[in-house]
Amino acid sequence: MISVIRIVLLIVFVGTAPAAGAPAQYGLDPGQSSVGFTYRFEERPIQGRMPVSRADLSIDFNNLGASQAVVELNVAKARAGFVFATQAMRGPKVLDSNNHPRIRFVSTRFARAGRGAVVDGQLTIRGVTRPVRLNARFFRTPETDPAALQNLDSVLSGSVDRHAFGASGFPSYVGPQIDIQIKARIVKR
Q: Are 156 and 133 in contact (CB under 8 A)?
């Protein structure tokens, strides 16, 4: 996970990238990446994790609008904080991992926003596709030369309403809003 001290010491990408002619291709370092989510179970916040099974990223820091991302998550290996919640989340009333083993995000637009970016895209859960917006920040890793964009840490965050995707099981226990935080190490290919 990215520590607060590390974030403070990193240089934010916006406006600092060297000139480049085309988007750069990046891959995910799964050992340095995690997709976390928070939901409310009987009014208490509970945290879970879901592994990334695929990430194809093309990022142009000089023309952010030319960037693209496709990310898939492995529902069958997701953890919802405790055993019974994990079983219920993977089951047919929520994510239905037997019939829908992946969650897929495909970007439709990258745009600068303050010291970061917004990433709009289409999110598919349980075969239902809806628009979603994520807030993004990219940081050079401490071991990276300040002039290079080889290894980057990214933090993306947003929220979804699980009912919009038909993942409505157990509404008397679990609230509708799912907060997402993705911490990822991306490596230039």
A: no
Closest CA to 151 of 137, 135, 165, 139: 139
pTM summary value? 0.84
The model's pLDDT over 62-89, given as tens digits with 9 standing for 90+, comes to 899 999 999 999 999 999 999 999 999 9
Backbone angles phi, psi at 188, to 5 degrees: -65, 135
Q: How many other β-carbons are positioned within 10 Å of the β-carbon of residue 131? A: 10
Other Cβ atoms within 10 Å of 182 Cβ, number: 22
Write out the residue range of the structural domain in which residue 36 sits. Answer: 4-188
Q: How far is CA 24 from CA 48, 66, 148, in A?
A: 31, 10, 12
Evaluate the CA torsion angle 163, 134, 25, 189 in order and state its sign.
negative
Q: Angle CA(132)–CA(136)–CA(137) in degrees, nearest 5?
A: 175
**Per mean pLDDT, which range of 10-14, 66-70, 115-119, 136-140 is the poorest?**
10-14
The token pair that represents 123 in the structure block: 């999110």
Q: Say how far apart CA 40 and CA 131 lie, in whole Å.
A: 22
Task: Tell me the CATH number at 85.
Answer: 2.40.128.110
Domain count, the chain: 1
The pairing of strands 177-188 and 44-50 is unpaired
